[in-house]
Amino acid sequence: MAMSTSRAASRRTILSAAAGLAAHVWVPRPAKGYTTADVASRLVQAPSGVGLSKWDLDTPALCVDLDRLEQNIATMQAAARRFGIATRPHAKTHRSADIARMQLAAGAIGLCCAKLSEAEALAAQGIDRLCMTTGNLSPTKIRRAMQLRKTSPTFIQAVDNERNARDLSDAAKEAGVTADVVLDVAVGTRSGVPPGEAALRLATLVDGLPGLTLRGLLSYDGGAQHIVGFETRKARTLANIEANAATCAAMKKAGLNTEIFSGGGTGTYNMQHLVPGFTDMQVGSYVFMDMQYLAIGRQDGHPVFDDFASSLTVVATVVNNRFPGRLTTDAGAKALTLNVPRAGVIGEPGADYSASSDEFGVITFKEGPAKTYAMGDRLELIVPHCDPVVNLYDVIYGIRKDRVERVIPVTARGKSQ
Amino acid sequence: MAMSTSRAASRRTILSAAAGLAAHVWVPRPAKGYTTADVASRLVQAPSGVGLSKWDLDTPALCVDLDRLEQNIATMQAAARRFGIATRPHAKTHRSADIARMQLAAGAIGLCCAKLSEAEALAAQGIDRLCMTTGNLSPTKIRRAMQLRKTSPTFIQAVDNERNARDLSDAAKEAGVTADVVLDVAVGTRSGVPPGEAALRLATLVDGLPGLTLRGLLSYDGGAQHIVGFETRKARTLANIEANAATCAAMKKAGLNTEIFSGGGTGTYNMQHLVPGFTDMQVGSYVFMDMQYLAIGRQDGHPVFDDFASSLTVVATVVNNRFPGRLTTDAGAKALTLNVPRAGVIGEPGADYSASSDEFGVITFKEGPAKTYAMGDRLELIVPHCDPVVNLYDVIYGIRKDRVERVIPVTARGKSQ
Hints:
2 copies of one chain form a homodimer.
Chain A: H1 4-17, H2 36-45, E1 61-65, H3 66-83, E2 86-87, H4 97-105, E3 111-113, H5 116-124, E4 130-132, H6 139-151, E5 156-159, H7 162-175, E6 179-184, H8 197-208, E7 212-219, H9 230-240, H10 242-253, E8 260-263, E9 280-281, H11 291-294, E10 312-320, E11 326-329, H12 333-336, E12 344-345, E13 351-354, E14 361-365, E15 378-382, H13 386-390, E16 395-400, E17 403-409
Parallel strand pairs in A: 1-16, 2-9, 3-4, 4-5, 5-6, 6-7, 7-8, 8-9
Antiparallel strand pairs in A: 1-10, 10-11, 10-15, 11-14, 12-15, 13-14, 16-17
């Protein structure tokens, strides 16, 4: 993460950019503290949307601003259209069938999943066109993947080694299915088959194996997404993927299917179309944004990457205000993770938020506080990194103009297998 | 966390100390990858305990070695007896009704909870004698706490400010219950009422309020638990709590109830009895241990704190071995958190484990590897910090001699409200 130098400089700017979220602030005292069950029963009574205030939720409460979420999905879809490529958003970010449906409705050609149990959970909620971006290695996982292929015939899975390709072929035959397969071709050294010779050999093998249909290749550059500064990010992204683009071209030349050449993420969404043969983007975080992505910088050089609006927040409660220069909240590492940059306190650009206690957050102030906080008061936090934070919660409260409109289950919460 | 200087030095020593875990290693190739449902149905078929191998579990799999867990509980209980105080183990560590029951059966006088939803979840599974170590501030939480007091008459809750004490009193009257209350008296500046005058005033108020019964005080020193080096840890612990001990004495002198004077944790379990008036220890991590606690050092000066055995591990799968000097696994931040010291790879003291990707772990080697790893091979990891890791999983597999004996639900997983 190369963001440490610019972090301090842009925290104020980032929080100013996100301030729109606080425009409708109406904080009841005392905040009531409604649970998910309370909210659900109220929504049944008043489905018209005149819901509870988000400030009255039991805390820590994970919230998404629906106007911003919808706008983010529309903005990304419009950008992809303009760039002449498609989106295949990564569900590892939200793990939610409801948000997956919104993305598909907006024009996404499918969704990515990181883990098989995640794909199974989403498929069980009726989400199809799922593409697993990692391989299934164990016999049980392979059998389950073939079962999923049976019930969800648009399911695609990744492969990155010969042994696994042969295992998939055997399992497909045994299950009586033809399995759609994409090559995971490495960008960097984390996952996948290296581009070039090895990838081409594997693609040829997969193409020839019974029970498998080669659909193309994946090339996700996880390391490039958070590079600070658009020009550096662009140069590195395009350099990193060059060998993969050459592999795609070689596959095509060899008569192998390259109808899918997928990768990229929120940080590189506006450069992936420059990669020859590229078909679709595995964008994830754009739906929510977070402190990490806000800090990577915009195409025009502005330090805040606000092409998408920060929509995901945690509402927390002040549980102690007795000690000078600090506040304690009820949102610690179990509510926010330990990712950096740390959570941003909306309306308090001079605040530093430490979630290093499991159960408590501790706020200290470089400047401010902007107001006086009583015990029981609510605060709203921009999360450090959206994916692992969402994974800590069973539900996301869908908020419109500070009112709870819906409860969004985190369908695949904890599905990391 | 003041452990950075000694961390590198003791990783090898720590992993050697934990090596006993790997004594029964039998790694099938390929590992089958059984899911929780598979395991549950097998256990029904063969409840005698001749279970599946832990190496055959679908991964990442959270496992606890039952021999070690039982031994840890017995060791702590014996130590407390020797020291002449009691244990009131903190359930925030395991969030499990099954492990709570083991602790109570061994002689714990009750259990602590950090959050109301955690207490409710455990009480719903029949766990009583729960003591909430943080206050309930919102009207809904207060009402729920009184409800819990009704159904679980041994429930105790903390209070640290006058307004909240009055709110609790009103709610108790309204609910028709008498609520048992302990003062949370601050050690440091994170939570609680400051010791001395303010605490005494609050204790007197609580004692006089209708609907409330004052039971004593809590004084948890979170900051002391991980101080490296026994003598430093002891000196700081005893100095930090001096004002609280004086407060306890003053309460007693004023005729206020101090039958509970509770605090301490795994790192200070062998010094809390030196605090005048102290009654019981809120030990948590001792059941599992983790890389953080292993590194704090033993009473005799040995760098590894192994009074309790490391029992909690994550079994992970190697998903890539293609790139020189590194391995990729399927256990990233969503399976292990970002706490430091990082996960320890059992049998590979020269390995550094990075979980900084959400979905992947990356192992690099300063020395070794001790063996050659194929894709699909299993590895076993000691977790960085047990509490937040457990909170990521729905179940812990209870393992005896490498076989799955039982499935332990994480009863209050995600209950951070």
